[in-house]
Amino acid sequence: MHIMGGMFIALLFFYLFIERFKLVSLQTNSVALFFAAVGFVMLVGVLWEFYEYLAEVFIQHQYLFACASPGGLFDTLKDLFDDLVGGIISGWTYIWIVRKRPSS
User: Is residue 76 part of a domain?
Assistant: First the structure.
C-alpha cells in the first residue's frame, strides 16, 4: 500500500505543481523536478507516520486500522522506504513520458 501511495503522491505532485497551477515549468531541470517530487513524497510519508504514531498513542490504533500490525522502528522505516520506491517509480516514469512528449 505504501508503494502505491508513494506513486499516487508523486503523480499528485506533478499534477498540482505542473499541470494544474503551473507553479513549475516543464523546462525545469528534470533531475531537480524528480528530486522535488520524491522529496514531496517523503514529506507526506513522514507526516503519515507521525499520524500513525499519534493514533497509536492517543487513540486505540487497532480500531482505526484493522489490518495494521503494531508499529515500531522497523515498520516505520519499511513504510518510508516503500513510499520512496513508489515516488521514484512515478517520478522517473512521469519525467520519461514528458521528455518523449512532443513540445507544443
Answer: yes
Closest C-alpha among 34, 27, 24, 50 to residue 84: 34
CA 81 to CA 46: how far, in whole Å?
Answer: 11
Instruction: Write the burial class of residue 85 (CB in 10 Å: 0-12 exposed, 13-18 middle, 19+ buried).
Output: middle
- Domain extent, residue 31, equals 2-98
Q: How far is CA 72 from the centre of its chain?
A: 21
Q: Is residue 46, in this structure, part of any structural domain at all?
A: yes
Domain tally for the chain?
1
Residue with cell 514529506: 43
- Stated pTM of the model: 0.82
pLDDT over threshold 80, residue 81: yes
Once rounded to an integer, what is the mean pLDDT over residues 24-36? Answer: 82
3 state SS of 66:
coil
